[in-house]
Design a protein that fits this description.
Order of helices and strands of chain B: HEHEHHHHEHEHEHHHHHEEHEEEH
Number of domains of chain B: 2
Strand content of chain A: 5-15%
Largest sheet of chain A: 3 strands, antiparallel
Number of strands of chain B: 10
Distance between the termini of chain A: 56 Å
Helix content of chain B: 25-40%
Oligomer: heterodimer
Number of helices of chain B: 15
Structural class of chain B: alpha+beta
CATH architecture of one domain in chain A: 2-Layer Sandwich
Strand order of the largest sheet of chain B: 2-3-1-4
Number of strands of chain A: 5
Strand content of chain B: 15-25%
Order of helices and strands of chain A: HHEHEEHHEHHHEH
Bound molecules: protoporphyrin IX containing FE
Helix content of chain A: 40-55%
Radius of gyration of chain A: 21 Å
Structural class of chain A: alpha+beta
Chain lengths: 239, 476
């Protein structure tokens, strides 16, 4: 459908180049486009793949908005992590598939960033089985956390909840981004419109409107393809 | 059999194997009219013997049924029958999405990809109900089918699949199957088959009970009568390339013969003759014996059933159904063997909490004619396994086993990056299998093609009898 709305498309694509229109675009045109073409936030986590190399050293970027948005709320979160640090580290060790994990506060969010091997649901499920009570303590401080705690009794819902707060990993190439978008819309027939890479900025703008926090790509790895246990085995650290 | 659980409320195929009924037919059904289909369900538990076949429960009372009849419902099936949306939402994601949406996790790629599945599996949304008939005689299958399909306003047949158990529980590839099943806490019968493993809590196989993961319970869809005592089944049509498998054994044996030291370790004095005797190999040679050694290592059991963990050098007729062994210490069962990947027992694995948590009840029956190595055909007919992998949580059991253990091999750093040799999504370029030698070193076999490819399947909920009555009584 290149003719229909083609002029408007080109107009919108041209907009970002001028300051006036940048403002106008973000206040008027982007909301208008978003209204016309509702965009669902793309799901978080690594892009599903069957390749072995893609299934080790996966990145989780979990952003959880705190209930109490103030220095007090942030201090509560800091305390919850500090008090449970030993249990969390022991739990991660037991899960066996985690390379790195750390907690960060950004704005009024408590974030957990980790690098893990294998399937995401297996990772979170094993984690619940190991230290579910700690998850409960942390999630109690997070918006809507009460919907899925205690996690031991809401395993599937809890995993889904975590998944929804894991950042979308924007692919490095335009075609992969369009592929994700099509998969989400359940639209596998590649239309001419979807193939047009000049439309990418607008689609990306709309996605970033629906999904303000994202991960850019899925990160750099110094030694790709190795599981945590393989690294430990080779360094003779025991696994 | 006595149990903590009311067996009369369970569908019989969950805890029983129906081993005396070798003929099995699957009726893949679409709901024609929801109200009529609900009446059909109600009739299937009415106790009447003239109409719709009666669901076989886990409690047979005094007399064994002549035939057995069980059903599973897909998410689309539950929805079409008019299950309230609040109940539907309580089912786990993987079940709601259905098997085809989980292809990457299950290794259903390439020749196994759902897009290549034949009818009726090419239209998963039309698969609502999978009914299974088990019978001693093949004619009985037709009788039961006729009764099941008599009311054409209720259900429409969209496809069938049929299997037949071979003698001695053999499956294609020539192995003895049906040896291991989890034993369950509170199910009395289980004591007969002590296997040295902790008994699995009932929550491994039924909704509403404690699971193997400490403190964890799976959500039971409400109302309680719908979810309680139900479970999930991954039904899989698994095509087996038997000619390819036998050819690979030739290839691997030839490779091994080039390494005399390995041959010495793999075939200690007397082994060749013993292997030849057990498998009736006329004029046994090192090559024909090594073929069996390779087959045994890929599975973890010799083709007669003897576990390598108990007898790694030769098969032992005393041990063909042996279940009581473990992988602690220096087991001679390869880490990558099919049975060790799919049940690491007490052996050390990376995911320390997972050792006993992914266990599955397996009900499988071969389909297609047995392969005859002496008379290979130009074009072999399709054959394989109609497999049912039953567990209370598909994600935590069937899928977790498929994606991290059978494929990827995450459970042991010495395996990671390889797929299960028997069932994994292998390609000749990248596949490998480490064959352990007595001395402790290993020989790497390469070039394994894909022996098993998926040709269909569906995730189904196996409702309790109470749930079937509940569904039968729904009004919309
Ligand atoms: C055509 C495909 C398959 C063939 C030919 C096959 C063959 C076998 C054989 C010969 C055994 C040993 C007999 C026994 O322990 O009862 C076995 C065991 C087993 N298989 Fe498979 N299998 C297949 C697919 C699968 C799949 C897809 C899974 C899981 C997703 C699986 C899971 C298991 C488990 C859990 C055991 C029991 C291991 C134990 O407890 O020791 N199998 N299989």
């Amino acid at each position: 459908m290149p003719s229909e709305g083609g002029l408007l498309d080109r107009f919108v694509d041209w907009l970002p180049t001028t300051l006036f229109f940048k403002r106008a675009a973000s206040w008027i045109l982007v909301p208008y486009w978003a209204h016309k073409t509702p965009v669902k936030p793309l799901p978080g986590g690594p892009h599903p793949s069957f390749e072995h190399g893609d299934n080790v050293q996966c990145m989780m970027n979990l952003i959880m908005p705190l209930k109490v948005k103030s220095p007090i709320g942030r201090a509560e979160a800091a305390l919850a992590i500090a008090q449970n640090k030993d249990a969390i580290y022991a739990g991660l060790n037991n899960v066996g598939t985690v390379h790195f994990a750390r907690f960060v506060i950004v704005g009024d969010n408590i974030c957990m960033f980790s690098v893990y091997d294998g399937d995401f649901t297996n990772y979170i499920r094993d984690f619940i089985a190991t230290i579910g009570s700690v998850f409960n303590a942390v999630v109690a401080l997070v918006e809507d956390g009460e919907d899925v705690t205690p996690c031991e009794k809401n395993v599937d819902a809890f995993i889904q909840w975590i998944h929804e707060r894991d950042l979308y990993q924007v692919p490095d190439t335009a075609t992969d981004f369009l592929r994700d978008q099509e998969a989400l819309n359940g639209d596998t027939a590649m239309s001419g419109n979807h193939d047009d890479l000049t439309l990418l900025p607008r689609k990306l703008v709309l996605q970033l409107r629906a999904n303000p926090n994202v991960s850019l790509g899925n990160g750099y790895r110094a030694y790709p393809g190795f599981s945590a246990a393989q690294v430990r085995e080779r360094l003779e650290l025991g696994w | 059999m006595s149990a903590m659980v009311k067996l009369a409320d369970l569908q019989g195929n969950i805890l029983r194997g129906y081993t005396k009924k070798p003929h099995v037919r699957y009726l893949i059904l679409e709901v024609a009219n929801p109200a009529a289909a609900r009446r059909w369900l109600a009739a299937s538990t009415s106790g009447r013997s003239d109409g719709v076949p009666q669901i076989t429960s886990g409690d047979w009372g005094a007399s064994k049924p002549d035939t057995c009849f069980n059903i599973g419902l897909t998410y689309e099936g539950l929805r079409t029958l008019g299950t309230p949306s609040a109940s539907l939402e309580m089912f786990p994601n993987e079940f709601i999405e259905g098997m085809t949406a989980r292809a990457l996790k299950l290794g259903d790629v390439g020749p196994s990809a759902p897009e290549t599945w034949p009818a009726p599996f090419n239209e998963p949304k039309r698969i609502h109900l999978i009914a299974t008939i088990y019978a001693e005689q093949p004619e009985q299958l037709n009788d039961v089918q006729k009764r099941a399909l008599a009311d054409t306003s209720a259900v429409t047949l969209v496809g069938t699949r049929e299997g037949y158990s071979f003698p001695d529980d053999r499956v294609h590839f020539g192995y003895r199957d049906n040896i291991m099943q989890p034993r369950f806490e509170g199910v009395h019968d289980a004591d007969r088959y002590a296997d040295g493993q902790p008994k699995a809590p009932l929550g491994t196989v039924l909704l509403g009970y404690r699971t193997n993961l400490e403190g964890l319970r799976w959500r039971v869809p409400e109302p309680e009568e719908l979810g309680h005592n139900g479970t999930f089944n991954a039904f899989r049509v698994l095509k087996q390339d038997v000619a390819g498998f036998e050819a690979y054994l030739d290839q691997a044996a030839d490779e091994l013969l080039k390494q005399p030291q390995a041959v010495g370790e793999l075939l200690p004095p007397g082994a060749e003759a013993k292997i030849g005797k057990v498998f009736s190999i006329e004029g046994v040679t090192p090559r024909s014996a090594l073929r069996e050694v390779v087959a045994a290592n890929l599975c973890g059991r010799w083709r007669d059933g003897t576990p390598l963990a108990l007898s790694a050098d030769v098969p032992d007729p005393e041990l063909v159904k042996a279940a009581n062994f473990d992988y602690v210490g220096e087991s001679r069962c390869p880490f990558g063997a099919h049975i060790r990947r799919s049940n690491p027992r007490g052996g050390k694995i990376v995911q320390r909490v997972a050792n006993n948590s992914r266990r599955l009840v397996r009900r499988g029956v071969p389909y297609g004619p047995a392969y005859d190595r002496t008379q290979p055909r130009q074009l072999e007919p399709e054959r394989g396994l109609l497999g049912n992998f039953i567990g209370a949580n598909l994600g935590a059991q069937f899928e977790a086993m498929s994606c991290d253990w059978l494929n990827l091999g995450l459970q042991d750093p010495r395996l990671t990056g390889s797929n299960d040799a028997l069932t994994g999504a292998n390609g000749t370029d990248s596949s490998w299998f480490d064959l352990p030698l007595k001395s402790g070193s290993t020989i790497r076999l390469r070039g394994l093609p894909r022996f098993v490819s998926t040709q269909g399947g569906a995730y189904a909920f196996l409702p309790s009898l109470r749930a079937i009555r509940y569904l039968g009584s729904l009004t919309t």
